[in-house]
TrEMBL record:
SMART domains attached to this UniProt entry: Y1_Tnp (SM01321)
Annotated Transposase IS200-like domain residues: 10-121
PANTHER family tied to this protein: TRANSPOSASE FOR INSERTION SEQUENCE ELEMENT IS200, TRANSPOSASE IS200-LIKE PROTEIN
Pfam families, per the entry: Y1_Tnp
Name assigned to this protein: IS200/IS605 family transposase
Length: 153
């Protein structure tokens, strides 16, 4: 185990940072990962941070890095997140893909459990009840249906 040192101390500080894509959207690929990794290394040099390990999946990144005790960690992470977010959106336009749901999509009338669509549902009915036995708040049921459309596109 190799320890780092400065004038008055000996230290070994490792940090594990996990960055997650907004809404856990599956947009992270090898090219984008390499771009973000290079940006991390370049920005880390200004803060006495050295990258140890970088791993990514399609919706998040694991970063293991070493830092000095006097590193302003919150400023570094803030700078990295804002710079990487801005530049990735600029250089990889597929990240900003907008998902639209048809304005007549029956989110309130569809059962989020079995998928059956009710013929009618009055606005005064605040509880959604389905023949399959599913019972939920009407708005909560609609939000699940909208989320499901988002995840499947």
């Amino acid at each position: 185990m190799e320890l780092d040192n400065n004038n008055h101390s000996v230290f070994l500080l490792y940090y594990h940072l996990v960055l997650i894509v907004k809404y856990r959207r599956k947009v992270f690929d090898d090219t984008m990962s390499d771009y973000a990794k290079d940006m991390f290394v370049r920005l880390g040099e200004n803060y006495n941070i050295s990258l140890v390990e970088w791993n990514h999946d399609i919706d998040h990144v694991h970063i293991l890095f070493k830092a000095h005790p006097n590193t302003e960690m919150s400023k570094f992470i803030n700078a990295y997140k804002s710079a990487s977010s801005r530049l990735i959106k600029k250089n990889f336009p597929q990240v900003k893909k907008l998902i639209k749901i048809d304005k007549w999509f029956p989110s309130s009338k569809t059962c989020s459990c079995c998928g059956k669509v009710k013929e009618s549902l009055s606005l005064s009915a605040r509880t959604f009840r389905c023949d399959c036995g599913f019972v939920a708040d009407r708005d909560w049921n609609a939000s699940i249906n909208i989320k499901d459309v988002f995840w499947h596109k």
